[in-house]
User: Which sequence fits this backbone?
């Protein structure tokens, strides 16, 4: 892997952890819909780091999700259960950002914070194992 690719992968992982921290801050302020947005983006940045490391990327969120599922989930490199965290947050983010009258509750969102953290850490281990 080239130095510039490695730098970009590390940058995306850093963005993932920053978005996760933003989600925690928003949770502390009971801003649940925006918290869901940041949780999704935290996972998205981790997935994009993984794809970049292996020479893939997409300009669309659906493309990133498709590449991830095709190259990592279907091949067993990432379990379906772990991938479900990212896929569910994709759907929840779509709802909260684009549909009217969607209001997530604390009881729904709180578990997603630790799930997103576990997902990011898992993706980081996959990245590290490929370095």
Assistant:
């Amino acid at each position: 892997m080239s130095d510039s690719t490695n730098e970009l992968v590390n940058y995306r992982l850093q963005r993932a952890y920053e978005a996760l921290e933003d989600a925690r801050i928003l949770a502390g302020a009971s801003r649940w819909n925006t918290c869901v947005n940041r949780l999704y983006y935290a996972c998205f940045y981790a997935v994009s780091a993984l794809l970049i490391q292996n020479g893939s990327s997409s300009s669309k969120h659906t493309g990133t999700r498709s590449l991830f599922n095709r190259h990592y989930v279907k091949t067993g490199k990432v379990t379906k259960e772990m991938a479900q965290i990212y896929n569910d947050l994709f759907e929840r983010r779509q709802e909260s950002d684009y549909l009217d009258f969607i209001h997530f509750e604390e009881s729904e969102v709180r578990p997603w914070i630790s799930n997103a953290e576990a997902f990011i850490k898992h993706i980081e281990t996959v990245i590290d194992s490929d370095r």
Notes: The chain has one domain: 3-130.
